[in-house]
Automatic annotation (TrEMBL):
It catalyses: malonyl-[ACP] + acetyl-CoA + H(+) = 3-oxobutanoyl-[ACP] + CO2 + CoA. Residues 222-310 form the Beta-ketoacyl-[acyl-carrier-protein] synthase III C-terminal domain. Pfam families: ACP_syn_III (PF08545), ACP_syn_III_C (PF08541). This is Beta-ketoacyl-[acyl-carrier-protein] synthase III. The lineage of its organism: Bacteria, Bacillati, Actinomycetota, Actinomycetes, Jiangellales. GO terms for molecular function: 3-oxoacyl-[acyl-carrier-protein] synthase activity; beta-ketoacyl-acyl-carrier-protein synthase III activity.
Length: 312
């Protein structure tokens, strides 16, 4: 075996929908401000007793069912999250226990909003190294636990949910090389800090960095994967702001790609945003199976990780 491929995807979102109009009754904001600055119309909010591992397990069950695999087939499970409440056990161990896995390597990855693509790359590397053969990679977040509901600059942005993919070993690699890195001098630009922890960010600085630096890095991801941007069939960027997503896709030159815009209905779900958005593209069959899709996460750290996969 020389690589891995994504064979299935699945997602879970809580039932409760929070609209911009409802938010405007809580803080001094408006539907018009939120739509025009970020593009968000609604977001999903987890119930008080619904946890990061609850949502992760539900997304994982769907991905496994779509893959036609049992939990006991999985030998590597990674959960990308920055909103786990407990320090130990990690979310991956809890998901493994809930789903009845046998002896998987169970690892959490915390690089905030770029966590899912980091976790996907480590699973691909484990398979390439022969240390795993069937992997489950999950992004799950309950950002609303770390949200100051009196701060209009942050509370309008966040949502909860989870997405998961199943990876298997493949003779022909369908998960391209990862391009990842960080910007240490902007390490504090996106934060969940303090106890129990509150989400905050330097919004304008992050916006400037994302719109000026990410097109170059996105092109590098494509180049290293041997894919011309115009040959991409899909682009799934971290779903933080439509005003970042749309110009970035345009500046990449991905003229034929379907661009995921799930931020509109789901808000910013940090490490869960890419697998949720990818799962919806697949569910609606907006990208053909086997077609190249760019996944690109960025956020706290500031960290980023991008790779091109073949669509399941
Ligand atoms: C967060 C973000 C949407 C804010 O948009 P912005 O245009 O930069 O807005 P600013 O923070 O400069 O605020 C502009 C004004 O709107 C006000 N404002 C902030 N939130 C508001 C809200 N929800 N409703 C109404 N007004 C609001 C501010 O108080 C400010 O008012 P002032 O001009 O009177 O001082 C945007 O900066 C962004 O998306 N940044 C990148 C985020 C990101 O990608 N993070 C990494 C991954 S999580």
């Amino acid at each position: 075996m020389t690589g891995s491929r994504v064979v299935a995807v699945g997602h879970y979102q809580p039932d409760r929908v929070l609209t911009n109009a409802e938010l405007a009754t809580i803080v001094d904001t408006s539907d018009e401000w939120i739509r025009s600055r970020v593009g968000i119309e609604t977001r999903r909010i987890a119930a008080d007793d619904e946890t990061v591992d609850d949502m992760a397990a539900r997304a994982a069950e769907k991905a496994l069912a779509n893959a036609g695999l049992a939990a006991t087939d999985i030998d590597y499970v990674a959960v990308a999250t920055c909103t786990a409440i407990d320090r130990s056990p990690n979310m991956a161990a809890r998901v493994a226990a809930r789903l009845g896995m046998t002896t998987p390597a169970a690892i959490d990855v915390n690089t905030a909003c770029s966590g899912f693509t980091h976790a996907l790359a480590t699973a691909d590397h484990a398979i390439r190294a022969g240390a795993a053969s069937k992997a489950l990679v999950i992004g799950s977040e309950k950002l609303t636990d770390f949200t100051d509901w009196s701060d209009r600059s942050t509370c309008v942005l966040v949502g909860d949910g989870a997405g998961a993919v199943v990876l298997t070993a493949a003779d022909e690699p369908e998960v391209g090389p990862v391009t990842w890195g960080s910007v240490p001098e902007m390490a504090n630009a996106v934060r969940i800090e303090g106890r129990p922890g509150t989400f905050g960010q330097e919004g304008q600085a992050v916006f400037r960095w994302a719109t000026t630096e990410l097109p170059r890095i996105g092109r590098l991801v494509c180049e290293r994967s041997g894919i011309a941007p115009e040959d991409l069939a899909g682009i799934v960027l971290h779903q933080a702001n439509l005003r970042i997503i749309e110009p970035l896709a345009a500046r990449l030159g991905a003229t034929n790609a379907v661009v995921a815009r799930d931020v509109v209905e789901s808000g910013n779900t940090s490490a869960a945003s890419i697998p949720i958005a990818l799962s919806k593209l697949v569910e609606r069959r907006e990208v053909p199976a086997g077609a190249p899709v760019l996944l690109f996460g960025f956020g706290g750290g500031l960290s980023y990780a991008g790779l091109v996969i073949r669509c399941p």
